[in-house]
Structure formats: structure tokens, C-alpha cells
């Protein structure tokens, strides 16, 4: 091939996943088959995220036609990015190409169905442009397999992939070597302030820490110092010794941390200086219980926030149960089993019997609100404690939509298990939760913890490991 420039054929699911994908291929050209435009037209109706994305693609294409002139469609439209997506180096832009009447259908033995028509258009495009490499981009694995069979190179859309290997994801905590204190003996400074102990050390080359990263020494002894990175400035790191929620007087709504990672999580959840917390872990690691306990303490006892707002992506594991009657809160109740299960644990009164339980439940009902994610656009949460459950089922775009709802004094907590993604076209590396963890790790007001040890029951632990 004499020309390094590529032509990317975009499948409908790529545009419905990310409408801005039109502008994400730098100097390369983008080709839209007629079948893709027809499928976008069929999918534009409704209020779902996919329908909104389809309408946005149509608006982008219309703006490009208006700015380039309809007479230039045959040659291709310059992919001039909208202001919000504009880059510093605007010299590297490709063209948007369409399937026109001059493109004769190629002879294939494939049946006449949308996917096959896109493949046929790709083959014709390759015949017309022998000097350029034609690549099909699709989120559909079967489509990529079929493309490989007919001889068209195919790739997944990876622009929103946070990292190449999920095992490289930031865990939020790191083990210190036993020589840590001796290494920093010369530059170590320590002091106490407001009941907390602090250390200040100079950052070494092998110490690549992030704000609010938790540091520990390997060992289960009570004398082990557990710290977190409070701030990093000009190569100097301030470390704070953590509160111990494992026992004694330190508890959150009557619950104690059962392991080291849960102690890290409670420290992050209870810190008013941290606006965004992500908790990642398998089933039974205590994500929801810790988030709710910390929320109830800060809403009812400390009155730091007005109320708890709980939401989640409504993705079914099995068959859909159809339409649900009632108000927004009543419709969301079947999806909120995790909330109600954990509230039962947290609201068991020590005194008062059934009367005390009923009074506690009435109090919590006024302060814990269940909201649907579908009606979040345009809202602003002021002084709220927002819990986003099952966040692994969100796309990066949906995650951005939710996090930008936060107003002054609001704390956002995202919970999820990337081993249980129920949404098609999302993987461990492209999930909105993974994306948020990777993008927020260097921000001064965010913290992330990966919980590893299950604390639900011996049955749940064994099932998690063996099945």
C-alpha cells in the first residue's frame, strides 16, 4: 500500500455508543454506508441514551453538510470538529465519505441483511481505493468475525478504552517495604494536629503515588502504621495516619471494618474533603453496606449532607419483567434490592422492638431517596450524598452525565463489580467505572479502593472463587 492513510467504515453500534466517534480518527477518512444511516434513522425515536446518541450523530452530519456545502458530498466532507471537541492541532483532519449511487454492489454470497450490506459496501470501497487500507470498526464481535471471513480488516472501537489490560488498573492502595522509614530517615518530618498524626517525606523515583492512595506495611500486626497520601506538592508528600475503624470506639453507624481494605474505604467515605469515591470489588466485599453506613452517619448524625440519593443502571440479568406500576420511587424499588437488604442490617434497633424498627424505617424513608438514572439529565444535587450502584454497566458518557450533576457540597460514591457487566458492547476496560477510576486517580478530591476479600458468608466466598 502506497498511502498510509486509512478509511474507517463505522458500524451503527459505534455511532450509537459514542456520537463523537466521527471525529476520533485524526487524519484518516471515515465512511458511512447507507445502511448505517438508515439504522440510525430507525433508532432515533425514544428517550433512551442510544436514541439520543443516534439523533446527535444526525445533527453532527447535518452541521458538516452545512459547513462544507451539499455539493461536496461526492468528494467528502472535511471533518471539522465542533468547538467542544476541537483540538489544538486542527491540521490533522480527515474527510467524511458516504455511499453514493456510483458505488455498485459487489458480488457476495451473503444474504441481504444490514450487517452484510455494510460488509458489501466495505468491499466496494476497497476496490475503489486500492491505495488505502479500509478498516471496519464495530462493537459487535460477530460482525468483526464476518468481516475477517470476507477479507475486510476489522477492529473494535477503542477510543474510550481506559487501559489495555484491566489488571493494570489503579487499586488505590500500595504496600510499603520494611525499609521505608530508614530510607526516609534524613528527610522525614512528623507532627500531630487535631488528633491526627502526619508525616512529610520527599518523593523518590520508585514511589509513584496518587492523592488519597492508601499505604500499608505487609503484616497483620496492630503496631503496623497505615497511612494515606494527603497531598503531593513539588516532590514533597504529606502522609496522614488513618483512623482505625476495625474496632473500639471508631465505628460507622454501628459497623466496623472487617479487613484492611474496608478500613481504607471507610476513611475515604467519611472524609468531607473527598468529593468522589469509587469502590470496586466482587460480590460480598461490603461495597453497598460501607457506602450506606457512611452516608447515614453523615446525613443523620453529623448532618453534613441533606439526604442520601441512590440510583443504579436498570439492566436485567435475566428476562425483563415488563412495565412496572407506581411512582418513580416505586418503579425503582425492584432494582434496589441491594439497598433494602443493607438497610435491614443497618436499621436493626437495639431497643424498642417492632415499634422502634418502624420508627427507624420512617425516619430513613424521609432521608434515603431512590431515583431513576433516566431523569438525571439537567438536575443539580446540592449537599447530597449520591450512591451510584452497579456503575460497571455505565458507559463513559453516562458516567460523565451523572458526575456532572454534582453541585456544591455533594459527595458521589460509585460502586461496582466489573466481573458482572450485563450491558452489551461494554467490557472490563471500556466500562464507565474503569474509565472514571483511571481518569480521577490524580485528582486531589477523589479516592479509589479495590476491595478483595469477601465478607458476606463462607458460601458466597466459595461460590465467588469456584464458579
UniProtKB/TrEMBL annotation:
Matching InterPro entries: P-loop_NTPase (IPR027417), PhoH (IPR003714), PhoH2-like (IPR051451), PIN-like_dom_sf (IPR029060), PIN_dom (IPR002716)
Segments traversing the membrane: none
GO cellular component: cytosol
GO terms of molecular function: ATP binding
Alphabetically ordered keywords of this record: ATP-binding, Nucleotide-binding
Pfam families hit by this protein: PhoH (PF02562), PIN_4 (PF13638)
Entry keyword annotation includes Endoplasmic reticulum: no
Domain (PIN): residue spans on this chain: 6-145
Domain of life of the native organism: Bacteria
Family stated for the protein in its record: Belongs to the PhoH family. In the N-terminal section; belongs to the PINc/VapC protein family.
Protein name, as recorded: Phosphate starvation-inducible protein PhoH
Amino acid at each position: 500500500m502506497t498511502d498510509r492513510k486509512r478509511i474507517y467504515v463505522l458500524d451503527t453500534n459505534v455511532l450509537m455508543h459514542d456520537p463523537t466517534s466521527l471525529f476520533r480518527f485524526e487524519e484518516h477518512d471515515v465512511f458511512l454506508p447507507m445502511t448505517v444511516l438508515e439504522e440510525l434513522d430507525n433508532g432515533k425515536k425514544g428517550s433512551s441514551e442510544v436514541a439520543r446518541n443516534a439523533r446527535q450523530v444526525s445533527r453532527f452530519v447535518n452541521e458538516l453538510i452545512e459547513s462544507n456545502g451539499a455539493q461536496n458530498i461526492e468528494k467528502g466532507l472535511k471533518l471539522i470538529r465542533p468547538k467542544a471537541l476541537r483540538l489544538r492541532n486542527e491540521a490533522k483532519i480527515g474527510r467524511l465519505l458516504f455511499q453514493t449511487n456510483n458505488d455498485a454492489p459487489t458480488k457476495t454470497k451473503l444474504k441481504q441483511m444490514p450487517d452484510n450490506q455494510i460488509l458489501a459496501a466495505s468491499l466496494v470501497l476497497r476496490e475503489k481505493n486500492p491505495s488505502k487500507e479500509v478498516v471496519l470498526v464495530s462493537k459487535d464481535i460477530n460482525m468483526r468475525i464476518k468481516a475477517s471471513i470476507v477479507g475486510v480488516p476489522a477492529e473494535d472501537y477503542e477510543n474510550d478504552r481506559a487501559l489495555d489490560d484491566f489488571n493494570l488498573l489503579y487499586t488505590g492502595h500500595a504496600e510499603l517495604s520494611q525499609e521505608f522509614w530508614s530510607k526516609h530517615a534524613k528527610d522525614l518530618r512528623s507532627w500531630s494536629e487535631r488528633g491526627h498524626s502526619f508525616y512529610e517525606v520527599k518523593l523518590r523515583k520508585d514511589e509513584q503515588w496518587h492523592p488519597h492512595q492508601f499505604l500499608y506495611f505487609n503484616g497483620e500486626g496492630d503496631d503496623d502504621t497505615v497511612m494515606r497520601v494527603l497531598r503531593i506538592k513539588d516532590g514533597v508528600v504529606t502522609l496522614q495516619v488513618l483512623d482505625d475503624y476495625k474496632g473500639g470506639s471508631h465505628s460507622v453507624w454501628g459497623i466496623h471494618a472487617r479487613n484492611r481494605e474496608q478500613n481504607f474505604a471507610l476513611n475515604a467515605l467519611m472524609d468531607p474533603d473527598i468529593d468522589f469515591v469509587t469502590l470496586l470489588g466482587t460480590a460480598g466485599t461490603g461495597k453497598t453496606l460501607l457506602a450506606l453506613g457512611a452516608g447515614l452517619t453523615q446525613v443523620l448524625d453529623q448532618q453534613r449532607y441533606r439526604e442520601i440519593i441512590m440510583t443504579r443502571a436498570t439492566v436485567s440479568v435475566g428476562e425483563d419483567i415488563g412495565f412496572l406500576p407506581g411512582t418513580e420511587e416505586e418503579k425503582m424499588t425492584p432494582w434496589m434490592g441491594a439497598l433494602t437488604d443493607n438497610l435491614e442490617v443497618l436499621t436493626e434497633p437495639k431497643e424498642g422492638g417492632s415499634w422502634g424498627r418502624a420508627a427507624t424505617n420512617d425516619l430513613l424513608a424521609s432521608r434515603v431517596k431512590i431515583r431513576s438514572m433516566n431523569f438525571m439529565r439537567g438536575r443539580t444535587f446540592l449537599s447530597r450524598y449520591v450512591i451510584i450502584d452497579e456503575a460497571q454497566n455505565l458507559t463513559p458518557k453516562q458516567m460523565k452525565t451523572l458526575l456532572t450533576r454534582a453541585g456544591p457540597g455533594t459527595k458521589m460514591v460509585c460502586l461496582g463489580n466489573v466481573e458482572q457487566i450485563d450491558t452489551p458492547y461494554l467490557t472490563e476496560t471500556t466500562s464507565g467505572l474503569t474509565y472514571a477510576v483511571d481518569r480521577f486517580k490524580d485528582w486531589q478530591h477523589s479516592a479509589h479502593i479495590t476491595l478483595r476479600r469477601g465478607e458476606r458468608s463462607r458460601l458466597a466466598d466459595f461460590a465467588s472463587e469456584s464458579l
